[in-house]
Design brief:
Layout (H helix, E strand, L loop, with lengths): L2 E5 L5 H11 L3 E6 L13 E5 L5 H11 L3 E4 L5 H10 L5 E5 L24 H4 L7 H17 L4 E6 L1 E3 L7 H11 L2 E5 L8 E3 H14 L5 E4 L7 H12 L4 E5 L1 H4 L22 H4 L8 H14 L11 H13 L1
Parallel strand pairs: 1-2, 1-4, 2-3, 4-5, 5-6, 6-10, 7-9, 8-11
């Protein structure tokens, strides 16, 4: 394969996917609405087609114009999107859909492809646009992949957990980097052993390409850091990348209540561990970036950006009230 169509491709995962494809000598075409700045506008290896992926005629025109070997779908949020794309690009060598670890419908450690059941999705939920149905819609997209494979389409899906790294518009990790960079004392909810599996964005990008090249039709592949870290360990990684040290202060629900805060107000906090098995993807030859390197690049990008993540978690004034309470105990 040497030509790729990336549906999306300019914001976060898609942006890094395009870079990875270029590093592996693909010629790339982007299909998107053109509403965001195109970081590849000056790269003659990257063409751009303006179109709305929810419009089937735009997908059909892209298929006819580019005849890509591989199609990577970064912005399929509804099962109908996947159904349309797998029909229109049925003759491509590979179609890869970005699903999500949120598609899993049962809490277990770890969540495994083909073993852990997926979320259900009613017809009403399949067209809903709220966060509450995100995982359900992604799961329905996975089922559309399986159905397409049964029709002979070489369609596959990749299920990332929480993605972080350069250009992360969610600013979830930026909240923690900002706290460590700006304050000597960092409040961590709970006892610091919370685990929410994360995936470095460049590793997600390479996973998408490797699945297109080596994956099996109808299969899903989890992607996440091969080494998991707790919330405390993540803060330590950030501090090391910044060349500083911080005092981590643990606060339970009672202490946090002094600042009218709850544990789930903090980004990347999850009471029950969320862990994805990545053995199936690793068996294809995929490898993850060492955590220290991934965090160093994430921190460097944060410092060069205008992101601070402060809107993603409690304000510092509220935390100061919590710290004041803890000092009296």
């Amino acid at each position: 394969m040497d030509t790729a169509l990336v549906i999306g491709g300019t914001r976060f995962i898609g942006r890094h996917l395009v870079s990875d494809l270029l590093e592996h000598d693909y010629n790339v075409t982007l299909l998107n609405r053109g509403t965001r700045e195109n970081p590849f506008a000056d790269d003659d290896r990257v063409d751009h087609i303006e179109g709305d992926r929810t419009n089937d005629s735009a997908l059909e025109a892209a298929a006819a114009t580019t005849d890509p070997d591989a199609v990577f779908d970064c912005v399929a949020y509804y099962p109908k999107d996947v159904q349309a794309a797998t029909r229109i690009f049925a003759d491509c060598e590979a179609y890869v859909y970005i699903s999500s670890g949120a598609a899993y419908g049962r809490e277990e450690i770890p969540k495994r492809e083909n073993e852990t059941p997926l979320e259900s999705c009613s017809p009403e939920e399949a067209t809903d646009d709220s966060d509450a149905t995100y995982g359900k819609r992604k799961a329905a997209g996975d089922r559309a992949i399986e159905a397409a494979a049964n029709r002979g389409v070489n369609a596959m899906s990749v299920r990332p957990c929480i993605v972080y790294g350069p250009d992360d518009y969610t600013e979830r990790l930026d909240f923690w980097i900002d706290r460590v960079n700006q304050h000597d004392r960092v409040v961590v909810p709970g006892d610091g052993t919370n685990v929410w599996h994360r995936a470095y964005v460049e590793d997600v990008a390479s996973a998408l390409r490797i699945v297109a090249e080596r994956g099996e039709a109808g299969e899903a592949y989890n992607v996440g850091d091969r080494q998991l870290v707790t919330l405390d360990e993540m803060v330590d990684l950030i501090a090391d990348a910044l060349g500083t040290t911080v005092d981590v202060v643990h606060a339970g629900p009672r202490e946090l209540a002094a600042g009218e805060i709850g544990p789930t107000d903090y980004p990347l906090y999850r009471e029950y561990p969320h862990v994805l098995s990545t053995a199936k993807l690793a068996a294809l030859g995929w490898e993850s970036t060492p955590l220290e390197s991934a965090m160093e690049q994430s921190v460097e990008d944060h410092l060069e950006s205008d992101r601070d993540g402060r809107e993603q978690g409690p304000d510092r004034e509220a935390e100061e009230r919590v710290l004041g309470i803890l000092e009296t105990l």
